Amino acid sequence: MYELEQKKSNYKWLQMVNKRIQLISNRIKPGIPLIFAFVNRQFIYHQGESFNKLNIQFMKRLKNSVQLIGRLGNDPEVRNFESGKKMASFSLATNETYYNNKGEKVTDTQWHNIVVWGKKVDVVENYLSKGSEIAMEGKLINRSYEKDGEKKYITEISLNELLMIGKKE
Prior knowledge:
Elements: H1 2-25, E1 34-39, E2 42-47, H2 52-62, E3 66-72, E4 77-80, E5 86-99, E6 105-117, H3 120-127, E7 133-147, E8 150-164
Parallel strand pairs: 6-8
Antiparallel strand pairs: 1-2, 3-5, 3-7, 4-5, 5-6, 7-8
């Protein structure tokens, strides 16, 4: 079933690519180089001798962008603020597996602090739990706070896009 859903998803993606190319085909001048790309779900293209404009667009979309696939280390913790805003936070574990010099398999786990704001909090609250596998895109946030008279620093990832990739429970 998952493979069928994946094939449907790929087919929809290819249909979207085809539509985007058809939309720009009226503006394409024959004989002049054309390049296009999908970056963070954005379709960008440039036609001309120099691709600097496209490179600049491409690099701007990569600025402060984090993409991770991992599993939740705990159930999301949801906070409601007096202003009516909601925030969810959870930890995400990403694993990297490699073989060391002795030929032994080694798994290195990195933990990331994720924060979620707005309407995405409802999705996280209702559909994610400890162990859920997700793919996500977000941006790095560095902040500091004071605890017991000592200044502490923390790095978090603010979630922009979420894709649940684990099996349905």
